[in-house]
Each structure stands twice: as structure tokens, then as C-alpha cells.
Amino acid sequence: MRMVDIIEKKRDGGKLTKEEIEFFVNGYVRGDIPDYQASALLMAIYFRHMDYDETLNLTLAMENSGDKLDLSDINGIKVDKHSTGGVGDKTSLVLAPMVAALGGKVAKMSGRGLGHTGGTIDKLESIPGFNTSLSEEAFVKQVNDIGIAITGQTGNLAPADKKIYALRDVTATVENISLIASSIMSKKLASGADAIVLDVKTGSGAFMKNETDAVSLAKEMVRIGKGAGRNVTALITDMDQPLGYAVGNALEVIEAINTLKGEGPEDLTKLVLNLGTYMVLAARDDLDKETVRKELERVISDGSALDKMAEFVKAQGGDPDAVYNTDKLKISDTITEVCADSDGYIQSIQSELIGKSSMILGGGRAAKDDVIDLSVGVVLSKKIGDKVSKGDVIARIYCDNAEKTKEAETMIKDAYTFSREFVEKNVLIKGIVG
Questions:
Q1: Residues 226, 232, 235, 239: is their CA dihedral positive or negative?
Q2: Secondary structure of 129-192 in the HEC alphabet?
């Protein structure tokens, strides 16, 4: 088998076999296939596309290209959740303890943030003492003991995806549904969960700006998951404005904890109740949808989800008192108010600009090795549909660096668009697949 023949076949619109795809993936990981040939194949795939069989085989080949997490020693059905990324997306911090409080087994591997999207691991590290690096043995034991563990991704989990994604990033071949779906699902399958709930974001702060593309991606990922023998459901959700109000690591943890106390933003609360319903339904076959929803509301109202969060934090070396007293989480003492320049209603918010403003403050990474400041960020005061008068506070910046604050303030003002006419609030849940 020759790589040049595989490239030529896809270039001319042919369908690649399972063996040809495995030859490419394994050869590229080993270093036998050079970047220029891999780039040629990716470009051929970009223009000629892949059908379902090819996409599934590519996903499975990437899943099997390195280590896989063995969760067979965990009792019960293991559930995971994955978001395609957004601004202010702290859902995992709320969801995991809620689901675990109802007996679900949440075994989650998460990553760090890059660019304007935050990472769950970074956010958790803003809790004093929290350890995000668990051995596989400790990870499995913790899920069995308390129902929840979140750890950083292992270095050799789906290594083919890391190599192929890096190449796609510099060869303008990122925006292809098959390549995106196989990238996401190869990591999720290698992480070992039995059931996966996907939160596919769409809008100005999402990877998929167009709702039609988001639906196509969701359908493809659900098909891949089911083809691999997993229970997969996808929700299409709004990212035309940040989720909740807080954007920034410690600030988002505080908002997540407030949500577990029943004091969170309406959109974040609604989202975790919807995602949580499908996670619990996958984990427990003794409950129906309506009952699950009520039970999720109960674990918030009676404090059991908050207690589970504290138990989880303690198990991973963090200070559980920080869950009950968020003053222990370090946030910047310097707060700068951003005010509206005109009267009217908030018509739109460019989520990506809000995310980038937090990154400029030091709350995100422009490059993979950047050190971030967990204490900085932005807290919005007004969102789409809200009425404002000139001079009203629309956001607050948490940062003690005047130069960075000034740059972030300009970016936040640019993110907001105002209308004299009444503006409807956004629809949060746009669809469900699977």
C-alpha cells in the first residue's frame, strides 16, 4: 500500500477503505508518512469530503492510535459531557456534581483553555490546592467512591488527533465536518465513557458560527458514537452571547458554585438542567425524563449537589470550604466599570470579543505555553434583550493592570450593539439530536 495512491484516490472522489485509513493514521503517528503527504490527503478530504463509513473508520483509527482509558472497574454506566467550546462555559463544574448526586458516574477528562475559550482544568485550579492530575487507578477509585472525578488529559490519548489537528490548523483544513467530528469523538471514545452528552455551540462565540453547520456536526458525532457502540445525545445551544455572566477562571467557578446554590444565571441553570437530564437518563434506566428533571432541581434546592461539589473538591486535594465560602477564591481587587454609551436595548454581543478581552487581561492563552492569571476576567451586567440607559454599567473588569484593562474595555464596548427597538431574548436550546 502506498500513500500516494491513497491521496490520488481521495483526490479523484473515491471512497477510502478501513485499511487505507488505518495505514494513513498509523503511518503518520509513527512518522513514516511525511507532513506534505498528510497535508495533501487532508486537503483532498476537505474538498471531496468523507461519507459516514470513512468518518467512522477515521475516528476509530485515531481512537486506537495511543492510550485508552479503561473504566471497566467503575461500577455502573459511566457518563461524560463534551462542549464544542464557548465563552463563559462553566457547565461541567455545575453538571458533574448534580449528576453524581443522583447516582451517576461522571468520569471526565478535560483540557486547558486556548484562545478565547476557557478550559475546565484551568478553572478547577483556581480552587486552592485542587489537583488536576490523577493516576488512572486514583481516577477510577474516586469515581467508584464518590461518583465524580475530573482530570487532565493524558499525553498519549488519541495522539493521531493531536498530530492531525496541528497540521489542519496550518493548512486551512479545519472547517470540514468529518475532520471536526472525528477529532472530537476520537478523544471522547478513548476516554472510555459508556454514554456521552454533547453540547454543540452555535453563534458568534462558538466554533460553528452557523446553526445549520452545528446541526450537521451534531448529527455526524451522534452517528459516530452509536456506530462505536456508545449512547450519544447532542444538544444544539446558543453561543451568540456568553453563557451566564462571568468570563474568567475564578469568576466562573464562583458563578458555578452560586448555580449549585440555586442562585445562578437563568441561562446557565436552564442549560445544566437540560444536559443533566440526558446524562442521568443514560446512567439510570429506572427514571423517566420528567422525574429526572425534578430530581435535578431537588439536588440544587436541598444542597446535596453543593455538598457533592465539596466532596469532589476535597477528594482532589482542594479546600472544600471554598465551595461554601467563595471568598477563598482569589479574584482581582481592582474592578473597572464599563458603561453604556447610549440608551436602548442590547441587540447583540460578540461573544468572541468578550472572550478575547478576558484573554488580554491574562485569563486565557494566546499560545499553548502561556501562564494564565486565574484571578482576572469580566462579569457582564447586561445581556441580549436587556434595557439600558446611557451610563448604565454593562460589564465589570477584574484586573489590576491599567493598560490591559483599557484595551479590554475598548473590546467589550465594541462587542455590544444597541437598538432603540425592543429586542427578544435569545433561544438557548435550539435542538436535540439522538
A1: negative
A2: CCCCCCCHHHHHHHHHHHCEEEEECCCCECHHHHHHHHHHHHCCCCCCHHHHHHHHHHHHHHCC
Residues 49 and 11: beta-carbon distance below 8 Å: no
Q: How distant, in Å, are the alpha carbons of 39, 48, 328, 360 from that of 408?
A: 37, 41, 26, 7
The DSSP secondary structure of 269-318, one letter per residue, reads HHHHHHHHHHHHHHH-TT--HHHHHHHHHHHHHTSHHHHHHHHHHHHTT-
Domain ranges in the chain? 3-48, 78-326, 335-419
Distance (Å, rounded) from C-alpha 184 to C-alpha 82? 9
CB 272 within 8 A of CB 95: yes
User: CATH homologous superfamily of domain 3-48?
Assistant: Transferase, Pyrimidine Nucleoside Phosphorylase; Chain C (1.20.970.10)
Note whether 3-48 and 335-419 share their fold.
no
Instruction: State which amino acid sits at residue 337.
Output: E
Distance CA 131, CA 381 (A): 32
Q: 142 exposed, middle or buried (CB, 10 Å; 0-12, 13-18, 19+)? A: buried
DSSP state of 372: P
What's the CA gap between 305 and 103, in Å, rounded? 11
What strands, in cross-sheet order, belong to the sheet with 335-339?
246-247, 377-380, 393-398, 335-339
Catalytic residues: 82, 161, 168, 183, 187
- The answer on pLDDT for 316 being more than 80 is yes
10 Å CB burial of residue 108 (0-12, 13-18, 19+) is buried
- Tell me how far apart the alpha carbons of residues 38 and 28 are, in angstroms, rounded to a whole number: 7
In this prediction the pTM is: 0.93
Residue 196, Cβ density class (10 Å: 0-12 exposed, 13-18 middle, ≥19 buried): buried
Topology at the third CATH level for domain 78-326 = Pyrimidine Nucleoside Phosphorylase; Chain A, domain 2 (3.40.1030)
Tally Cβ neighbours within 10 Å of residue 219. 17
Average confidence score pLDDT of the chain: 94
Q: Which three cell numbers stand for residue 407?
A: 484595551
What CATH code is assigned to 335-419? 3.90.1170.30
**Residue pLDDT, tens place only, 107-151:** 998 877 655 566 889 999 999 999 999 998 999 999 999 999 999
